[in-house]
Design a protein that fits this description.
By secondary structure, this protein is an all-alpha fold. It has 14 helices and no strands. It has a domain of about 120 residues. Helix content is about 70%, strand content about 0%.
């Protein structure tokens, strides 16, 4: 997806700046062990940034499958005030809203996307990402209202302004949480579309055929889950990180139980490309997302 590589470059630049600025505050005689740990964290965040979808990628993949827009799957923007005073919640739900904005804009729900941008702005300002969701962005969004590619590019380009992201050593944790929130929301929308698809319109075989493109989108996220776990394992295991790690570990196990690569290798992809086999994944994603947005 063309936007994800741009997002990777911008986020990698952000991570490099964050790590450098934090490192510059340390004593010159910082131990080699600490430097190695810091470099490991930087490398793992870079890997995650490059390998997980951008806020617009999953929504655009969903739109491309022909799936209908489902407004019940996005987080209520009116809940923004309850996140604003807690930096971890603000970071997680800034990521959630970024994915929601991508979902809205990919389905030409531009006015709603602008409303969500305004909500995201208050969270971004709260955790120090000053100017990322500014008036200029809203103006450009409105000017490109008929061009969803431009809207997606604008959303991803806001990452470029996060090079001023936060002012202390907690920024790595908050950056990780924002990335996590965005990914979980994209996966939640994907599983939600399949779960809410009517079960009485078509025979099972025909229904599975219709849902196959959506199921593929979900199955392709197995590596992203593993990358997120690697990243979060380097962050202090306090709440909400500890709970998120526990749920992602269970999610990774559910993916592994499907044995997707082996099934495809043996020409048995039909065994995994049904919504019934996604039940465990869907339940865990719902639990994870509920904890994030509460």
């Amino acid at each position: 997806m063309k936007f994800s590589r741009l997002n990777a470059i911008l986020l990698t630049a952000l991570v490099t700046l964050i790590t450098w600025s934090c490192g510059s505050k340390k004593e010159e005689n910082t131990s080699e062990e600490f430097n190695q740990a810091e470099q490991t964290l930087q490398d793992q965040i870079k890997d995650v940034v490059y390998n997980i979808p951008s806020p617009t990628e999953i929504p655009y993949l969903l739109q491309a499958t022909g799936a209908e827009f489902n407004p019940t799957l996005i987080n209520d923007r009116k809940k923004v005030d309850q996140y604003a005073s807690i930096s971890d919640k603000a970071a997680l739900n800034l990521g959630v809203y970024a994915a929601d904005i991508g979902y809205l804009s990919s389905y030409d729900k531009t006015q709603e996307a602008i409303d969500y941008l305004n909500a995201a702005k208050s969270l971004a300002d709260n955790i120090g990402v000053i100017g990322a969701f500014d008036t200029d962005l809203l103006t450009k969004f409105e000017a490109n209202i008929a061009n969803k590619d431009s809207l997606g590019a604008l959303l991803n380009a806001t990452v470029q302004k996060t090079d001023r992201y936060l002012k202390d050593d907690s920024r790595n944790k908050l950056a990780s949480l924002m990335i996590t929130g965005s990914f979980v929301e994209g996966l939640y929308i994907s599983t939600g579309l399949i779960k809410s698809y009517p079960k009485n319109l078509l025979p099972d075989d025909a229904r599975n055929l219709v849902l196959t493109p959506l199921i593929r989108v979900i199955l392709e996220q197995q590596k992203s889950v593993s990358e997120l776990l690697k990243m979060l394992s380097t962050v202090e295991q306090t709440e909400p990180v500890a709970s998120i790690v526990a749920d992602l570990t269970a999610l990774e196990a559910s993916y592994r139980a499907l044995n997707i690569d082996e099934q495809i290798k043996n020409n048995r992809a039909d065994l995994v490309l049904t919504d019934k086999n996604l039940t465990d994944i869907t339940v865990i994603v719902e639990k994870l997302r509920k904890e994030i947005i509460k």
